[in-house]
Amino acid sequence: MSVLVGKKAPSFTAKAVQGQNIIEEFSLDQFIGEKYVVLFFYPKDFTFVCPTELHRFQDEIAQFESRGVQVVGCSTDSEFSHWAWLNTPKNKGGIEGVTYPLVADINKTISEDYDVLAGEVVLDEDDNIEVEGELVAYRGLFLIDKAGTVRHQVVNDMPLGRSINECIRVIDALQHFELHGEVCPMDWQKGDDAMTADHAGVSSYFSK
Q1: Model pTM?
Q2: PROSITE patterns annotated for this entry (predicted)?
């Protein structure tokens, strides 16, 4: 598994769906210098755990917007599958009402670049192409800053849903550091004391 933290987020241009609109050329580059990005991958449309995550991001969309963060979802499904899922009511397993973009990684290249693609393409003894497992994305999540650099990543196996609260907490920690130059200790929450990077600051924090 590649560690992308501290590196430029892999660039891509792909089709995406937002609301009723199919976007022919969607890229995260449009947000550089303008917004933070939470890019999250999920395995498949029309499944069970995935809609709980997509709806939860939508439920908290105001929290992300207030922090200047653009939420973007991505799976290896086509734009037509995304569109159909977005037009299916929640009580029928759909994600109707989700407003943020969903990227169609139909060629698997984005998932591969972010190193969240499950399964493997191999050659058998006769040089025939075979696929071991399914070529779908793990539950990867990447926080990308305004400069286009990955500052946080987490990858869950497919049965394990993520925590929206932890995602927001990490955004708050990054923005606190950028604003104040203070580092954030374990379990830090917005409003808590943070720490300066010098020895005096660390000492004063732990003396409280």
Answers
A1: 0.90
A2: THIOREDOXIN_2
